[in-house]
């Protein structure tokens, strides 16, 4: 709705609009390797390509205005589901007597593997979710939580039931309620550890 409102107001002033959200973190932004999801007139996208290529190396035309924002939310909701599933898998595995490294190696070579799992296990076990003083989180809980929430709102507006999407939202909302908005999103691992009385995170991790 927001995108369509912007397009309507811009069109009244003969201004063309692309809704072009991105996927990736600070590192990808600095390297110019963000994924860009552009909704709008393909001719306008062609004109904007030189600018978009300065910060993205995978640029997708998703359809008319609004579809860029939609696929961004869908992607981040799916990532959020995988984040929660990875945390649950870790606490279940450790509770069952497995070592985190064993879980990582076996799932990494099996059908349960995905990009989120590959990166998240190391983040949980080696990187402090509290950003260094004076720095902002690369993948803040508030950002991930916002997109999972907005994806659920979009589904509600379209009368699409989301069993996993709605369930995955709850840990993010709980973390936000605890005041963890500005920490890295994997801070919510603490919730799963406490619920299962299991310790995954080492006491000392790099920042």
* Topology as a string of helices (H) and strands (E): HEHEHEHHHHHH
* Low-confidence sequence ranges: none
Structural class: mainly alpha
Q: Looking at CATH, which topology of the largest domain would you report?
A: N-(1-d-carboxylethyl)-l-norvaline Dehydrogenase, domain 2
The gyration radius over C-alpha positions equals 19 Å
Helical residues, percent = 55-70%
Q: Compute the number of helices.
A: 9
- Reading off the top of the CATH hierarchy, the class of the largest domain is best stated as Mainly Alpha
Q: What percentage of the residues does DSSP assign to strands (E)?
A: 5-15%
Kindly describe this structure.
This protein is mainly alpha-helical and 207 residues long. It has two domains: 2-65, NAD(P)-binding Rossmann-like Domain (Rossmann fold); 69-196, N-(1-d-carboxylethyl)-l-norvaline Dehydrogenase, domain 2. It has nine helices and three strands. The chain has helices spanning 2-11, 26-31, 42-52, 67-95, 100-108, 115-126, 141-157, 163-177, 189-196; strands at 22-23, 34-39, 56-63. A three-stranded mixed beta sheet has the order 1-2-3. Helix 3 (42-52) links the parallel strand 2 (34-39) and strand 3 (56-63). Helix 4 runs parallel beside helix 9 (189-196). It is elongated. The mean pLDDT is 94.
């Amino acid at each position: 709705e927001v995108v369509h409102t912007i397009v309507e107001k811009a069109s009244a002033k003969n201004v063309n609009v692309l809704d072009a959200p991105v996927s990736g973190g600070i590192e990808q932004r600095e390297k110019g390797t963000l994924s860009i999801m552009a909704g709008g007139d393909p001719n306008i996208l062609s004109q904007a390509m030189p600018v978009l290529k300065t910060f993205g190396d995978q640029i997708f035309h998703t359809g008319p205005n609004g579809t860029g924002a939609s696929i961004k939310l869908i992607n981040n909701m799916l990532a959020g589901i995988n984040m929660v599933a990875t945390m649950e898998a870790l606490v279940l595995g450790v509770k069952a007597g497995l070592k985190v490294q064993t879980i990582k190696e076996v799932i990494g070579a099996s059908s349960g593997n995905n990009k989120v799992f590959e990166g998240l296990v190391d983040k949980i076990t080696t990187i402090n979710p509290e950003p260094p003083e004076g720095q902002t989180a690369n993948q803040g809980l508030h950002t991930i939580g916002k997109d999972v929430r907005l994806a659920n709102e979009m589904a509600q507006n379209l009368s699409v039931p989301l069993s996993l999407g709605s369930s995955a939202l709850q840990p993010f909302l709980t973390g936000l309620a605890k005041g963890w908005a500005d920490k890295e999103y994997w801070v919510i691992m603490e919730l799963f550890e406490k619920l299962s009385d299991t310790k995954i995170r080492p006491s000392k991790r790099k920042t």
